[in-house]
Amino acid sequence: MHSNYWAISGRILALVLVVIGGSVSFVHGKWDFVLFAVLLTGLLGWELLYSMHRLQRKVHLFFEAIKYEDGSLHFTEDQKDPHLQGLHENLNRINTLITDIRIREAQSEHFFKEFMKRSASGLLAVDQADFVEIINDAALSMIGLPNLTHLSRLQQSQPELYALMQQLKPGQSEPLKMIDRNELKHVSVKVVRIQFSEKSYRIFSFNDIKSEIEENELETWQKLMRIMAHEIMNSIAPITSLSQTIGSYFIQNKIPKKREEISQSEIDNTAKGLAVIEERASGLRGFVDSYRKLTQVPEPEFKAIELQSWLDSLQLLGRGQMEEDQITLKISNTYPKPTFSGDERLLTHVVLNLLRNATQALENTTHKTIEIRTEQGVTGSLRLTVTDNGKGFAPEERDKLFLPFYTSHENGSGIGLSLSRQIIRKHKGRISASSIPGVKTAFVLEI
């Protein structure tokens, strides 16, 4: 292409020199030179226009071929004119590069489609108007439809899934139970948002987590049964032992003793034993009541909660205990919205339980501090963090914290955190914990 520019520039320069020479000849009255200059100017002008037209026609043909994706276009490189030969070589080289790029793009697109089609995870992309841009076989299998062109069709076949997909925020993941042809499916639904060209898309992924849930449920039940067996045996064993001991005071060789054969010390010991039996029975009844609380968590009544007012009430509720234990309570709020949705009574119960746990963790700590911080989470939800500088917990305790009846406190019931997690889950939120023992412990609520 560069040689053609030099060729055209040379023709233009020659034309300019001929015109200048003709003008000088005209001034001096040399008409023969003037006539020759006119003829030469016309010849050079026509040749220049022809060359430019030919160049323009070839370039136009080249771009038309690109426009209509015609990779078969080829310019003959065996030309007498070296400038034209250079042009043809360059155009053919560019055309080859563009064709190679198109082939690679086609291969990448084919790979992407095959990847989506064969993925074990269900994948679904929809545009801003909820039209389905692409969906793979795994997603169709999970939702139980042969095809899907618009999300609105899910309103009839899978209304719960449709409602969840409309409510999910970018980056958020939620589990869902789905029934398809009398089969119960446990599916995790996640959404991300991407901007492609000038259009925005939501990409949904569906993962079957039934087997994982069943394994987790089995493990949880095994842990729960071990804890329940431990608690029940701790109450039953002394009751059984005391019953046998008390029975020996009144029965000898399987024959009841007479009144005069029973000593005052045996009567006193019997009264003490019965008091212990009553105490252990009361503890067992409290254990059963705690279990009943875990199985009867009320459904939240969602209302708009004034965030700052709620935080003020939490500070007021915790002030007495904090002053008694000489704990500094700090509350900060950077959440951009004045309200959030939730059940104020249940959420207050959760935060007060976290404050109570933090207070117990600070028993042997100097400069006791508890902080409640509210801010906006990654998905736009309310993020509430309760932090203390108490003894914390070891890494191996993390998986046990929210397990029913697990407690590290001597007089703890072991249901506070488990109950809190159930309440937060009913708010479609999450609760997590982290700790650097003796330095910092944080419980985070995503509501």
Instruction: Please identify the structural class as seen in this structure.
Output: alpha+beta
* Count of distinct strands: 14
**Considering the protein shown, what is the CATH homologous superfamily of the largest domain?**
Histidine kinase-like ATPase, C-terminal domain
CATH level 1 class label of the largest domain: Alpha Beta
How much beta, percentage-wise? Answer: 15-25%
H-E order:
HHHEEHHHEEEHEEHEHEEHEEHEE
Mean pLDDT: 76
* Strand order, sheet with most strands: 2-1-5-4-3
Report on the biggest sheet: 5 strands, antiparallel
Distance between the terminal alpha carbons, to the nearest Å?
64 Å
Total of helices: 11
Number of domain units? 4
| CATH fold-type name of the largest domain | Heat Shock Protein 90
Overall 3D geometry? elongated
CATH A-level architecture of the largest domain = 2-Layer Sandwich
Work out the helicity level: 40-55%
Low-confidence stretches: none
Computed CA radius of gyration, to the nearest angstrom: 42 Å
Descriptors:
447 residues; alpha+beta; Beta-Lactamase; 4 domains; five-stranded antiparallel beta sheet; five-stranded mixed beta sheet; 20% strand
Structure overview:
This protein has eleven helices and 14 strands. It has 447 residues and is α+β, with helices and mostly antiparallel strands. It has a five-stranded antiparallel β-sheet, sandwiched between helices. Strands 9-11-12-14-13 form a five-stranded mixed β-sheet. A two-stranded antiparallel sheet has the order 6-7. Helix 1 (2-27) runs antiparallel to helix 2 (31-67). The chain has helices spanning 2-27, 31-67, 82-118, 137-143, 154-157, 159-167, 210-250, 264-295, 307-324, 344-361, 416-426; strands at 122-126, 132-135, 173-180, 183-196, 199-208, 251-252, 255-256, 303-306, 328-333, 339-342, 369-376, 382-388, 430-436, 440-446. The model has no long low-confidence stretch (mean pLDDT 76). Helix content is 54%, strand content 20%.
